[in-house]
Backbone:
């Protein structure tokens, strides 16, 4: 599923190549959010988060964290029901940076949040690890590469 272009580009590609309007829960939600004007705000926030991420300066990490929170606020449905595609890239970026900085708890937390943004429901993955706790995927989400 093309993520970068958003709803309009995704619909154009499906009409062009397959001849139909794609009507999954993500598209339904984006169409609804677009009517409220929040989709444009989300796009701006995602672009700003990408700019902060590309600077790679440590102080900019706080900016990416802030943008993740603001992007999350533009979604009206829980991620387990409608994947939050706009959160995947900035959360994975944060996980990678935290890992490079040796901040393992934050790295794992960001990676789990990234998976949860795609609809995964995961129990037992948080740090610190508790003996006897298993990692369980309660619900599978959208696959990304």
Residues:
């Amino acid at each position: 599923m093309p993520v970068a272009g958003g709803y309009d580009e995704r619909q154009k590609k499906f009409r062009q190549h397959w001849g139909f309007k794609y009507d999954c829960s993500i598209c339904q939600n984006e169409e609804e959010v677009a009517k409220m004007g929040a989709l444009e705000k989300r796009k701006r926030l995602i672009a700003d988060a990408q700019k902060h991420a590309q600077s790679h300066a440590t102080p900019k990490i706080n900016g990416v964290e802030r943008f993740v929170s603001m992007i999350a606020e533009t979604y009206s449905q829980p991620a387990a029901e409608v994947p939050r595609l706009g959160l995947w890239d900035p959360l994975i970026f944060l996980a990678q940076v935290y890992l490079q900085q040796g901040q393992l708890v934050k790295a794992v937390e960001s990676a789990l949040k990234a998976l949860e943004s795609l609809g995964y429901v995961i129990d037992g993955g948080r740090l610190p690890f508790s003996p006897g706790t298993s990692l369980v995927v309660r619900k599978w989400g959208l696959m990304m590469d």
Remarks:
- The longest strand covers residues 136-139.
- Residues 38 and 74 are 6 Å apart (CA to CA).
- The chain has one domain: 37-139.
- Helices lie at 6-18, 25-36, 38-55, 58-72, 85-100, 104-117.
